[in-house]
Design a protein that fits this description.
Radius of gyration: 17 Å
Helix content: 55-70%
Number of helices: 6
Order of helices and strands: HHHHHH
Largest sheet: none
Length: 95
């Protein structure tokens, strides 16, 4: 989780937060008990490691704050420029 946070992979962070707050459906215990157990263990680990405050809404707020901080420091840079750098492994910044 920490690596994803440092990399600012906002989409993945939001999805992980959504899955953790949504929790596993009880129906899944019947249809795919192995997946249910794995999902429940991952959610428990997520909360025990202190990530409980990272909700999808909070990720969106932090993402917006980070974008506005980029604009404040470099008004000519698009707010999602950091995402492009992260997604371009060929660039020196994407390594």
């Amino acid at each position: 989780m920490a690596e994803v946070t440092v990399a600012r992979d906002w989409d993945l962070l939001e999805e992980v937060a959504r899955l953790a707050t949504q929790d596993a459906s009880p129906d899944l215990a019947v249809t795919d008990s192995s997946l249910f157990v794995t999902w429940r263990e991952a959610v428990t680990k997520y909360h025990l490691k202190g990530w409980s405050n990272m909700t999808p809404e909070r990720v969106r707020r932090v993402r917006a704050h980070a974008a506005s901080a980029v604009l404040a420091k470099a008004p000519d840079v698009p707010p999602d420029a950091g995402d492009d750098i992260r997604q371009n492994p060929g660039s020196p910044m994407g390594r």
